[in-house]
Amino acid sequence: GSPGACTVTPVAAEVDLNEEVRRAQKVEAELSDLDSQVQKTAESKNALESYVIEMKGRLQREDAEYITAEDREAFLQALQATEDWLYDEGDDEELAAYVAKLNALKELGNP
Questions:
Q1: pTM for the full model?
Q2: Residue 60: half-sphere exposure toward Cβ, Cα within 13 Å
Q3: Which of 9, 16, 77, 91 sits between 20 and 30 A of 107, alpha carbons compared?
Q4: What is the distance in angstroms between the CA of the first residue and the CA of the last residue of the chain?
Q5: CB 95 within 8 Å of CB 37
Q6: What is the mean pLDDT of each run of 10 residues along the chain (111 residues)?
Q7: For residue 22, which of 30, 13, 34 has the smallest C-alpha distance?
Q8: From CA 47, how far away is CA 78, in angstroms rounded?
Q9: What backbone phi and psi angles, to 5 degrees, belong to 29?
């Protein structure tokens, strides 16, 4: 070389495209699982809320004659406590919490 001339050597950055694709697919699958979990949780919360509203209405109407006053009052209290929980600390719970609450109410409501 001539004086003052620089030699530039290109540095090849090797990218493993297959690895990048695998990573992207893994992230996509995790997001899909998360979306599914969020949807199931929302559906369970809605099912619990619907059950509370339906049963409160039924107890105040047609089913009142098929249950003792004591059992009716206890069930109404449980329904009200669940409704209060739903709109307070239960507003953003895990799927299992909604399922457990619904199952507990159904045990009371369908002895």
A1: 0.71
A2: 9
A3: 91
A4: 96
A5: yes
A6: 62 65 87 87 94 90 75 92 93 92 90 62
A7: 30
A8: 16
A9: -65, -40
